Amino acid sequence: MCGIVGIIGRKDVAPLLIDGLRRLEYRGYDSAGIATLVNGSIDRRRAEGKIANLDARVREQPIDGTVGIGHTRWATHGRPNEANAHPHASARVAVVHNGIIENFQELKKELQDAGRAFESDTDTEVVVHLIHHHLDQGLPPVEAVQHSLKRLNGAFALGILIAGRHDLLIGARMGSPLAVGYGDGEMFLGSDALALAPLTQRIAYLDEGDMVVLTLEGATFYDADDQPVAREVRQTALSGALIGKGEHRHFMAKEIFEQPQVIGDTLNAMYNPAQGSITLPDLPFDLAAVPKVTIVACGTSYYAGLVAKYWIERLARVPVEIDVASEFRYRRPVLADGGLALFISQSGETADTLAALRHCKAEGQHTVAIVNSPESSMARESDAVLQTLAGPEIGVASTKAFTTQLTVLACFSIALARAKGAIDRKAEQALSGALAEVPGRAAEVLAHDERIRDIAQFVADARDVLYLGRGTSYAIALEGALKLKEISYIHAEGYAAGEMKHGPIALIDETVPVIVIAPDDEDELFEKTASNVQETVARGGKVVFFSDAHGVERMSETALYAIPMPTVNPFVAPILYAIPVQLLAYHTAVLKGTDVDQPRNLAKSVTVE
Ligand code: F6R
Fold first, then answer.
1. CA-CA distance, 340 to 316, in Å (whole number)?
2. Which tens digit of pLDDT belongs to each residue from 238-256?
3. Is residue 487 part of a domain?
4. Same domain flag for 209 and 273
């Protein structure tokens, strides 16, 4: 959510800032801007919309300078127009900001009363004027920033430029991530290591409350009490090459088609084929003693957690509580003594999930983060990490992160069940063997791409779409509906199929496509779902049915479209059935002509509450 870059070097920084912003564009794309120091004075270029617009502006009006900051915005306060685009600046200070300054109204009033004039509707501009005010009072830049930071409430990562000081670039972090990159005679700031990958592989992260002062020679970190501190410099494995779309038109398509590979990579880190067993990385607590599991996440990651609730309770017979992070943290949840709290997040930076992790840690829970980014805040702050090996996910709608989360959670469920003695070796072999088949089966599912593209023609004309499923397929129905609404802007809802007659069936008529997720199973859920489908069809509903060959045959007369999925152990079905709903959303969005990879109003990494 909002991307920041900063560079202090020896050559013109504008092209490098724009390149860094391109890598961060997935974090927000409402507007963008850069500021540099030209002969000691702040110069800026800003543009509404995507980085391409900023790039065009800079080509028309080039900007030089060897120190600079850049920003790509996801609007919180103020419309996404040029006036509200970052960097915000006065004659003495320029600032880029990711996060929210919660007390900005009170500060703005105070600063306006002191005679300072504001140009934008943003919360960020108070930071500019606060620092300017302290500089005017005679404080040197570092102290002026330190004094200003003490006045801010909320979450922020900041990049700060001071007029007349081309030898200085300042960063600060409270709640939003910020990385420092070490170059050769040049230094960098970035929202994440991905932005800095082509510039350097040597990265240090600011801790909560840290400020950092960059010069050409290096970085000096200060903690929340303004004391100099050392922060570890690590080597990141990220490649500097700009991640491409390969033969695909969109990142989302590329990422959907990468799933057989990345599910396999993720599984290989935990699955021993010779033994037919699952081994988790070392955990600093005894799994066998865990009395309860609490799962917290947002959005798609939450739906992965919902599948895991079914898996864990069924296999390990351990109670699972699950909540979306924004609700969890404010409802004073009752946690079990010695309980395990699982946090699921692609980015590892989602503000609400991170806050929930900190809460659970403070309450003495064992904390495990399932993240795709091993250098993220959640990875660094949890007791243990189970990594999804999805690789960088650039499309804003999550796809391969979801199925790799499911893969990790499936392994975790088996390991917990074994540790608890709830399943025996034979069952472990059967379940992990079924998991090992998933990459190959996922490739078979992808072969239905063209058929699903045809179905998308029918869905693209709809105003409302319903997704139905039971058990773990209920979670996939919710995920399918989320995918469709976020990239095609068609209203969609996921329901537990059995809930239809308690209200939603009133929506059914011949204009509402009903997407049914119904793998064959051991619990008669298929039969129950099939009955719900008959009730829907009897009321004019047009059904798209995803099931295995047997289920498809059963529904061939009833469903408008039926797609035969591979016949698999029902345990792994949710991983495979996630794929057709991703494809359906993707093709519908393409037909509607939306911006598939960067849908309106969204951003990839939600670092504000
Ligand atoms: C939907 C989507 C979001 C994220 C959510 C959590 O396609 O991508 O719903 O799943 O914002 O993000 P992470 O997983 O980074 O915590």
1. 14
2. 665 556 787 899 999 999 9
3. yes
4. no
Q: What angle do CA 334, 336, 342 make, to 5 degrees?
A: 90
My answer on whether 114 and 181 are in the same domain is: yes
Residues lining ligand 1, CB < 6 A? 298-301, 345-347, 350, 353, 397-398, 482, 486, 605-606
Could you write out the DSSP letters of every residue in 552-572?
Answer: HHHTTTT-SEEEEEPP--GGG
One domain for residues 423 and 455? no
Distance 346 CA to ligand 1 centre (A): 7
Identify each DSSP E strand in 39-91 by its residue range: 41-48, 67-73, 88-89
pLDDT digits (tens, 9 = 90+) for 274-301: 999 999 999 999 999 999 999 999 999 9
Pocket test for ligand 1, best of 1, 489, 606, 607 (most atoms within 8 A of CB): 606
Is residue 405 domain-shared with residue 470, that is, in the same domain?
A: no
Average model confidence (pLDDT) across the chain: 93
Structural domain tally of the chain? 3
Active site residue 2: yes
For 388-410, the DSSP string reads -------SSS-SHHHHHHHHHHH
Inside any domain, residue 568: yes
**What's residue 244's pLDDT?**
72
**CATH value at residue 192:** 3.60.20.10
Q: Which CATH number does the domain housing residue 533 bear?
A: 3.40.50.10490
Tens-place pLDDT, residues 376-433: 889 989 999 999 999 889 899 999 999 999 999 999 999 999 999 999 999 999 999 9
Of 420, 436, 452, the domain-final residue: 436
Active-site annotation holds for 485: no
150 pLDDT more than 90: yes
More confident residue, 520 or 408: 408
CA distance 144 to 92: 12
What's the pLDDT score for residue 242?
Answer: 54
Structural domain ending residue among the three candidates 375, 408, 436? 436
Residue 113 is assigned to a structural domain of this protein: yes
Question: Within its chain, how far is the Cα of 148 from the centroid?
Answer: 30
Q: Is the predicted pLDDT of residue 607 greater than 80, yes or no? A: no
Nearest CA to ligand 1 atom 16: 345
Measured in Å, residue 396 CA sits from the centre of ligand 1 at 8
Instruction: Yes or no: say if 43 and 91 are a contact pair by the CB < 8 Å rule.
Output: no
Task: Kindly state whether residues 293 and 164 are assigned to the same domain.
Answer: no
Instruction: List the residue whose alpha carbon is closest to atom 13 of ligand 1.
Output: 345
For residue 85, is pLDDT > 80? yes
In a domain, 298, yes or no: yes
Please give the model's pTM, rounded to 2 decimal places: 0.82
Q: Whose CA is nearest to atom 10 of ligand 1?
A: 300
Residue ranges making up the domain that contains 588? 443-592
The span from the first CA to the last CA of the chain, in angstroms, equals: 11
pLDDT digits (tens, 9 = 90+) for 492-506: 999 999 998 898 888
Residues 241 and 272 in one domain: no
422 and 455 share one domain: no
**Do 203 and 260 share a domain, yes or no?**
no
pLDDT confidence of residue 241 = 54
Listed residue (593, 555, 556, 551) closest to 568, CA to CA: 551
